[in-house]
């Protein structure tokens, strides 16, 4: 997914704490701590550092993510991604080189 098709981007210089809710597509390049709820797509960019429990439709992890994920459609961990936490999803994709520590339920 290219950045032009993403509705909102949290930039590298932003640190955010709290609860995020949205419906379309969001990319996090900065730091976030809290909870995230969406029916859309969440992308943790290569420079992103997220510590959150997440309910989502689709998630793509390119950076660091700590927390539990419940994805209705798909979880994708790219080769630059690091995921620490338990995941529940019908479709789990982990690229060669990615790091995943946790349990998965499919």
TrEMBL record:
| Annotated transmembrane regions | none
**Origin superkingdom:** Bacteria
Please report which protein family the annotation says this sequence is part of. Answer: Belongs to the bactofilin family.
Keyword Phosphoprotein: yes or no? Answer: no
Q: Which GO terms describe its biological process?
A: cell division
Q: Would you tell me the protein name for this molecule?
A: Cell division protein
Task: Supply the alphabetized keyword list.
Answer: Cell cycle, Cell division
Please give the Pfam families that the UniProt record associates with this protein. Bactofilin
Question: Upper lineage ranks?
Answer: Bacteria, Pseudomonadati, Spirochaetota, Spirochaetia, Leptospirales
Q: Does the keyword Iron apply?
A: no
Q: Give the organism the record lists.
A: Leptospira perolatii
